[in-house]
Automatic annotation (TrEMBL):
Keywords: Cell inner membrane, Cell membrane, Membrane, Transmembrane, Transmembrane helix, Transport. It comes from the Bacteria. It is a multi-pass membrane protein. Belongs to the TRAP transporter small permease family. It is found in: Cell inner membrane. It holds the Pfam family DctQ. Part of the tripartite ATP-independent periplasmic (TRAP) transport system. This is TRAP transporter small permease protein. Residues 24-147 form the Tripartite ATP-independent periplasmic transporters DctQ component domain. Its main location: membrane.
Amino acid sequence: MRISLLNLMEYLCAKISILALIVMSGITFMDVFGRVVFNHPIGFSYEVVGICLGVCFYSGLYHVHKKRKHVRIDLLEKLFRGKAGEVIAWFGYLVELVFFSTLVYMVYKQMEESRQFGDIFMFLGLDKWLVIAAMAVFAIIALVSLVVAYPDRENGEA
């Protein structure tokens, strides 16, 4: 069995996304349980859930980009066939590529600003730029997935 780097990245991102969801749901359950039963919530739950949500989102984007499973409006796809459909599909892909590249750059800039300012989480005591750096890495990996998942009109994708 041949293992490619892209398949390995997809596998790791999927497992990390699942782990983030499990941690997020576990922390939420413990926080609500502690608040209701003991009248004492977990202080760091909002920070951990926020971190897990960001990690889950950015690590899950690899699969979304690779499989082209975005939420999209496809009202015009049936109207445009042939060369016009290909041009429109590639135009939409390029717009998406530019938009997501800009998003990756903005996450990187946010990481730099957080590092320079010295932001830390209130309850965790962890530097925020480290978490944003992890999200930036996942965003870059998702960008790689988007780059290799160009439109394929022959397989019914636009």
